[in-house]
Amino acid sequence: MRGVGPTVIGIGGVTTRPAPVAARAGGRKARAAVLPNFLIIGDAKAGTTSLYHYLRQHPDAYMPEIKEARFLAYDPSNPYHARSSFFPIKAWSEYLRLFEHCGDAKAVGEASPNYLRTPGTAERIKAFVPDMKLIVSLRNPAEREYSAYLMEYRAGREKRPFDQVVFGRSAALIKARFYWLDLKRYYDLFAPDRIRVILFDDLRSDPGRVAKELYDFLGLDRSFEPDLSVQHRGGMARSRVLFSCFDRARRLLRGVPGAPPGMRRVARTVERALLQKTKLDPEIRRKILEICRDDIARTGDLIGRDLSLWLA
Q1: What's the topology of domain 8-140+179-231?
Q2: What is the pLDDT of residues 43-65, one digit of tens each?
Q3: What residue segments make up the domains of the chain, in order of their start?
Q4: Any bridge partners for residue 135, and if so which?
Q5: What is d(CA 236, CA 274) in angstroms, rounded to the nearest whole number?
Q6: Which of 78, 110, 170, 269 has its CA 20 to 30 A from that of 214?
Q7: Is the model's pTM score more than 0.90?
Q8: Cα–Cα dist 70/22, whole Å
Q9: CA of 136: how far to CAs of 9, 37, 46, 242, 305, in Å?
């Protein structure tokens, strides 16, 4: 990329890879297309929805309405990927259209938390934009697992007790979500100054400071004050039946282009009313963190942060 702005390429009916600048479509000069210059790559259940909203509000940043395009993790040779609705974007032309209204934005990006953990994604991003800026949020593993469980429980996809889920099959679920290996793939490919790691603990305690640090990272005016009330809240559903109905309606709302911001605010208010806070059992928390102890230490060394607070 040149300067601080996004990369511009030519595009003409591209379906598998971006076309070169001189590409033509049907004998006509291809229209210019903009590539993102930053990505929020993860982690799931670590505040990426809040980060998406804080960055999207900035007047010099552009992020598409769709969160979690997931395209750079998409593998067309994988039968599951090809038929799954989990990947809403499956062609380069569709992906590039997400950014066609970015105007003169300095920072153009998207948020897909599965990028952190999907094999091959780091290499795909490196080939796509070699000096991409990457943002990743990390959360205490025990809290992250419990939050993920509550989401599955609310949706009716999980009915077992939490301890059976996380400790089953020799704690395979916990071990599959260790941080170090997934992060190292990115550190092996990208310079450290292209990766900004934040902690969910900091995002929760001082979201304004985190937002301004990210504005600095992306070369944006840090004096902008975002609306920090836009946050994703979790918890246990007061009624799984009512929450399931609400969740289906919310998913339909997300698919409506240009849905009024007021509708989204109402949806957040309803969600808060349907959820109640619930605490993770201290003994289960201790067991999860003991399993993760070595990975936490290695991750801290990799990112240059003391993560011992997670073990407290």
Answers
A1: Rossmann fold (3.40.50)
A2: 999 999 999 999 999 999 999 99
A3: 8-140+179-231
A4: 40, 196
A5: 8
A6: 269
A7: no
A8: 27
A9: 26, 15, 9, 33, 14
